[in-house]
Amino acid sequence: MNPVRAVPYVVKQVVRHRVRSGLTVGGIAIAMFLFTAVQAMNEGVTRVTAASANDTTLVVYREDRYCPATSRLPQDYQRRIESVEGVAGVTPMKIVVSNCRTSLDVVTFRGVPKSDFIAQRGGEIELVAGSLEDWQRRTDAALVGETLASRRGFRPGMTFNAAGITAYVAGVIRSDDPQDHNVAYTALPFVQLAGRDQLGVVTQFNVKVEDSSVLDRVAGDIDRVFANAQDPTATFSEKAFIGRVADDIIELVGFARWLGLGCLAAVLALVANSIVLSVQSRVSEHAVLRALGFSGGQVAGLIIAEGIVLSVVGGGVGGAAAVAVARYGNFAMSVEGISIPISARAGLLASGLVVCGGIGVLAGLVPAWQASRREIAACFRAA
Amino acid sequence: MSVLIECRGLTREYRKGGQVIRPLDGLDLAVPRGDFLALMGPSGSGKTTLLNLIAGIDSPTRGELIVDGADIGTLSRRRLAAWRARHVGYVFQLYNLVPVLTAYENVELPLLLHPLTRRQKHDRVVTALERVGIADRRGHFPSQLSGGQEQRVAIARAIVTDPAVIVADEPTGDLDKASARAVMELLRELNRESGKTVIMVTHDPKTTEYASRTLHLEEGRLAGGSAVGGVMA
Question: How far is A278 from chain B (nearest CA, A)?
């Protein structure tokens, strides 16, 4: 039998057993929503912490400090860092966050020297709304990350208040770097003046090196320069820095992976339960199919196909809902000025569907095998 | 008339609770092509077992069973399934229609196994439904049909593949008198006009009036001996 011919039969079995299919698909959708959400968090963590050969950014922080409020470095370290061999550019940065705790809605101000910022990051950032001239001209102007703008409804020309700072939205920016998605870039003195005794003090230096191969060497050289200074430094690659600061979130997401596996187990149990009950209640129907000439293997195939349809439909609904919520909710887990996007791409949905298909096969295997081995005549006697 | 079905020393045994049950015990039988054979006998006499063996949904423990030239007792499960799809139409006492499929879809079901175009399948289904006089109910689900109508759909399903043999296990056992008569007339038409060989198990002596001959089984054997090459009533 051509398997394609059996598709309408399988679909009718699923669609016309409305209550059974509806409950099963609903359960699978909920479990797959959770699984996809966990995977989206996991993907976000991987995206911001996985080192790559193209990494050329270092973050210089105050040694033994872990949050922007306590990392205080003299701004004049900039010149000494620039003199280290292999350094291509240095951006001093003052960071102020609206919420020190882990949250899904944090506004992070990054005060930067505007001209240095444009020179070093201009090529990586796209202005999607507003005016760069406006940003350069106004002291209180902010370039707002697209995710933050979308989440908070910020548009050019608006003013907003966060962390006790009132800023003017000069433009909305787009960037591939997740750390740009939830920030408001403003003038460095503007953020420094927002706190007491902060003029001349920065939170960190973002250092561009000439080549990724010298990343570790330059980091070591910078820390050696300030080893005996009043404020010694700790320098990391940007991704290692994020991994260090966001350690709690990463641990939490690591634990959530178990939750994800639990969701898959729930899907397996749901589909298996549905298929077993279905096969038990349709013993004579399957015997009729075999009396009509279907082989045991063909009947088994039909049962497994039902499992696949149920789990893929449920997984599709749940996964698509999770991807939509992650994409349009513009969520990011923020901690200490670091942003980890909850990143759900289409590939995540596709891989979820493949997993669901596999679960459908697995869930249907035993009942299908049992149905294929039953004596036809015995099924009629039992019925 | 040539012999379509031939049983020689046909025996079926199975174990139940440590005991060997032998519903069929060395039966010899020949059924000519185009015959309408009624099988009668008390419960446990082996009627349904014989029917199931002829239909290829059970396999003999010993003996030969040749249907339309094929020794179906020696076929593997897979080959036997393929053989059933081509040669046998089964009519059940309780109709056994698939409840979530319409009358049309139920009749179409066996054609999934046949390499036909959509048009060919449609024509065959419509012809079968018209043949049993139920074409106007093609879109109805089994729950929306009477018992007699359901059995007509089941007969349409049995004939849609144009099999040589129709086996019917108490086809009127669950029907009222009028419906039973209609179903029996339909089986007789299929036998006489379409040349189908019909083998029917029944408890009702009235239905045997439609058959060309009746055999009685007792304790797994034909009452009165062999029916090879002849008619026994």
Answer: 13
What CATH code would you report for B3-222? 3.40.50.300
Flag if A376 and B49 touch (Cβ within 8 Å): no
C-beta atoms of A292 and B90 within 8 A: yes
Contact A150/A140 with Cβ under 8 angstroms?
no
Residue B13, number of CB atoms within 10 A of its CB: 14
Of A26, A29, A47, nearest to A37 by C-alpha is A29
Domain edges within chain A: 3-49+248-382, 64-231
Number of CB atoms found within 10 A of residue A150's CB: 15
Q: How does the average pLDDT of chain B come out, rounded? A: 90
B78–A297 CB contact, under 8 Å: yes
In degrees rounded to 5, what are phi and psi of residue A187? -70, 145
Distance from CA of A362 to the nearest CA of B (A): 24
Q: pLDDT per residue over A59-87, tens digit each? A: 999 998 878 888 899 999 999 999 999 99
Looking up tokens 């797959």, which residue turns up? Answer: A32
Give the type of residue at A86.
G
- CB atoms inside a 10 Å sphere around CB A20: 16
Please state the ipTM of this predicted complex. 0.90
